[in-house]
């Protein structure tokens, strides 16, 4: 197994939400660069504050820290919203933003006055996606949730989902029949890709198709402009490896140019830096062992043991660095 710091890597999915240098110090230690993804999460700092944190810490460090911007959903049903969103994207791109994030609040929480949910393929967002396609600006899309979200907690396949949806019942769709269903989210996202065949799109979290790699493959075949990231879904790959290790290896070999590594670590200012650092080290080292060795492994995330994938170094370099550079047009 090559050492984890043996070549430069990119964690292309972090949330740099705290005004401290700990993630960059960890990145230096493990030979990583970082991409911080601004997201309109209610308990995150404001999206303007997230942008400022990424820019200020990038300027102060010799470790590359890129960031993806996002747009506010405030006044999204007003006539001038799309124009103001495009103006913000232009301004943020001029200041270094590598792409634009669209989060699950589109489809899971933003409602019209009549109670209907805003979905990604609705007319309000169409001018923005058209602009992004025309300008070839990457879109980072988190639509829907893992399919586990629509199951009872005890039937979910990985521990992280059981913990997350137990702690966030507002997003546990098993309890909310009045909300759009799992297929509604996937079909709305696919409709955007059908409508915009040249849109550079990264389906975050294995494009919310983590439960079935055949479904991911179907989308990658259907949409040549689509890539996927692994953020917070490698535990699902543990599950698949326990069931059929070779199918996971085949997936990485076939789509080695379209898979991007990320952890989704949140630098939460409400937690000690030491706690965040320990969790990030745990993720980086466990993922590295899984992807680079053929060792028997166990994880509290899944009930069965599994074996590492032992991917070739050429594929590892793509997943860990080259694909992020290509899809996000990183300098």
TrEMBL record:
It comes from the Bacteria. It holds the Pfam family Amidohydro_2. Keywords: Lyase. InterPro entries: ACMSD, Amidohydro-rel, Metal_Hydrolase. Residues 97-330 form the Amidohydrolase-related domain. Transmembrane segments: none annotated. This is Amidohydrolase. It comes from Fodinibius salicampi.
